[in-house]
Amino acid sequence: MQRLRIVGAALAGITLLGAATACGSDEKAGSEEKVVVDVTVEDGAITPKGDRVEVSTGQPIDLVVTSDVAGSLHMHSDPEQEFAYEVGTTTIPISIDRPGVIEVESHDPPQIIVQLEVR
Ligand SMILES: [Cu+2]
Questions:
Q1: CB–CB of 79/15 below 8 Å?
Q2: For site-directed labelling of 86, which of 8, 29, 43, 65 has its Cα 20 to 30 A away?
Q3: Residues 5-44 pLDDT 10s
Protein backbone atom coordinates (compact mmCIF):
# COMPACT_ATOMS: atom_id res chain seq x y z
CA MET A 1 0.00 0.00 0.00
CA GLN A 2 1.36 3.35 -0.96
CA ARG A 3 1.53 5.82 1.82
CA LEU A 4 2.09 9.47 1.31
CA ARG A 5 3.35 11.14 4.42
CA ILE A 6 2.04 14.60 4.05
CA VAL A 7 1.31 16.50 7.20
CA GLY A 8 -0.35 19.77 6.46
CA ALA A 9 0.14 22.59 8.89
CA ALA A 10 -3.09 24.27 8.04
CA LEU A 11 -6.28 22.98 9.51
CA ALA A 12 -8.38 24.40 6.72
CA GLY A 13 -11.72 22.80 6.28
CA ILE A 14 -11.87 21.47 9.79
CA THR A 15 -14.51 22.87 12.02
CA LEU A 16 -15.26 22.31 15.63
CA LEU A 17 -18.93 22.47 16.35
CA GLY A 18 -19.37 23.60 19.87
CA ALA A 19 -22.48 23.58 21.93
CA ALA A 20 -24.26 26.54 20.41
CA THR A 21 -26.64 27.24 23.24
CA ALA A 22 -25.74 30.35 25.16
CA CYS A 23 -27.67 29.74 28.31
CA GLY A 24 -30.07 27.34 29.89
CA SER A 25 -28.57 24.40 28.05
CA ASP A 26 -29.13 20.95 29.41
CA GLU A 27 -25.53 19.95 29.05
CA LYS A 28 -24.97 16.25 29.32
CA ALA A 29 -22.19 15.29 31.67
CA GLY A 30 -19.22 13.96 29.78
CA SER A 31 -20.65 14.75 26.39
CA GLU A 32 -18.07 15.90 23.90
CA GLU A 33 -18.22 18.25 21.00
CA LYS A 34 -18.62 16.65 17.63
CA VAL A 35 -15.66 17.09 15.33
CA VAL A 36 -16.60 17.73 11.72
CA VAL A 37 -13.99 17.03 9.06
CA ASP A 38 -14.93 18.44 5.67
CA VAL A 39 -13.48 16.47 2.78
CA THR A 40 -13.78 17.67 -0.81
CA VAL A 41 -13.24 15.51 -3.88
CA GLU A 42 -13.23 17.55 -7.06
CA ASP A 43 -11.70 16.83 -10.47
CA GLY A 44 -9.65 13.99 -9.00
CA ALA A 45 -8.16 16.14 -6.24
CA ILE A 46 -8.91 15.52 -2.57
CA THR A 47 -8.59 17.99 0.24
CA PRO A 48 -7.42 18.09 2.97
CA LYS A 49 -4.08 16.40 2.33
CA GLY A 50 -2.95 14.88 5.58
CA ASP A 51 -4.03 17.44 8.15
CA ARG A 52 -3.78 16.29 11.75
CA VAL A 53 -6.96 16.39 13.75
CA GLU A 54 -6.87 15.85 17.50
CA VAL A 55 -9.79 13.93 18.95
CA SER A 56 -10.51 12.07 22.15
CA THR A 57 -11.34 8.42 22.42
CA GLY A 58 -15.03 7.94 21.77
CA GLN A 59 -15.51 11.48 20.53
CA PRO A 60 -18.07 11.66 17.72
CA ILE A 61 -16.53 12.59 14.38
CA ASP A 62 -18.41 13.33 11.17
CA LEU A 63 -16.51 12.93 7.94
CA VAL A 64 -18.52 15.11 5.56
CA VAL A 65 -17.49 14.23 2.03
CA THR A 66 -18.53 16.44 -0.84
CA SER A 67 -17.59 14.79 -4.10
CA ASP A 68 -18.15 14.95 -7.82
CA VAL A 69 -17.67 11.20 -8.11
CA ALA A 70 -18.62 8.15 -6.03
CA GLY A 71 -15.74 6.55 -4.17
CA SER A 72 -14.58 5.29 -0.81
CA LEU A 73 -12.42 6.23 2.13
CA HIS A 74 -10.30 3.89 4.20
CA MET A 75 -9.81 4.31 7.88
CA HIS A 76 -6.68 2.53 9.01
CA SER A 77 -8.04 1.59 12.36
CA ASP A 78 -7.93 -1.93 13.73
CA PRO A 79 -9.84 -3.48 12.08
CA GLU A 80 -9.55 -1.37 8.95
CA GLN A 81 -12.80 0.15 7.80
CA GLU A 82 -14.00 1.33 4.43
CA PHE A 83 -16.71 3.89 3.87
CA ALA A 84 -18.40 4.54 0.56
CA TYR A 85 -19.48 8.01 -0.47
CA GLU A 86 -21.76 9.13 -3.25
CA VAL A 87 -21.85 12.03 -5.65
CA GLY A 88 -22.91 15.02 -3.62
CA THR A 89 -22.51 15.21 0.13
CA THR A 90 -22.18 12.10 2.29
CA THR A 91 -21.85 12.27 6.06
CA ILE A 92 -19.90 9.39 7.60
CA PRO A 93 -20.18 9.27 11.39
CA ILE A 94 -17.27 7.58 13.13
CA SER A 95 -15.60 7.39 16.50
CA ILE A 96 -12.43 5.70 17.66
CA ASP A 97 -12.20 3.99 21.00
CA ARG A 98 -8.45 3.55 21.29
CA PRO A 99 -5.64 6.10 21.46
CA GLY A 100 -3.28 6.32 18.51
CA VAL A 101 -2.89 7.93 15.14
CA ILE A 102 -5.46 6.73 12.63
CA GLU A 103 -5.09 7.61 8.99
CA VAL A 104 -8.09 8.26 6.82
CA GLU A 105 -7.07 7.88 3.22
CA SER A 106 -8.13 7.46 -0.33
CA HIS A 107 -6.67 4.80 -2.57
CA ASP A 108 -7.75 6.44 -5.80
CA PRO A 109 -5.84 8.68 -5.92
CA PRO A 110 -3.60 7.34 -3.11
CA GLN A 111 -3.54 10.04 -0.49
CA ILE A 112 -3.77 10.52 3.22
CA ILE A 113 -6.70 12.81 3.86
CA VAL A 114 -6.50 13.30 7.59
CA GLN A 115 -4.59 11.79 10.46
CA LEU A 116 -6.80 11.44 13.49
CA GLU A 117 -4.66 11.83 16.58
CA VAL A 118 -6.72 10.03 19.19
CA ARG A 119 -5.89 10.76 22.82
CU1 LIG B 1 -6.25 2.23 2.90
A1: no
A2: 8
A3: 444 334 444 444 444 444 444 445 456 799 999 999 999 9
The Å distance, Cα 114 to ligand 1 centre, comes to 12
| Chain centroid to CA 48 | 10
CA of 15 to the centre of ligand 1 (A): 24
Give distance in angstroms: CA of 81 to centre of ligand 1: 8
> If you measure from the C-alpha of residue 49 to the centroid of ligand 1, how many angstroms do you get, rounded to a whole number?
14
pTM of the model: 0.73
Q: How far is the CA of 40 from the centre of ligand 1 (A)?
A: 18
Residues 6+ apart with CB under 8 A from 98: 57, 78, 118
In degrees and rounded to multiples of 5, residue 54 shows phi and psi of -90, 130
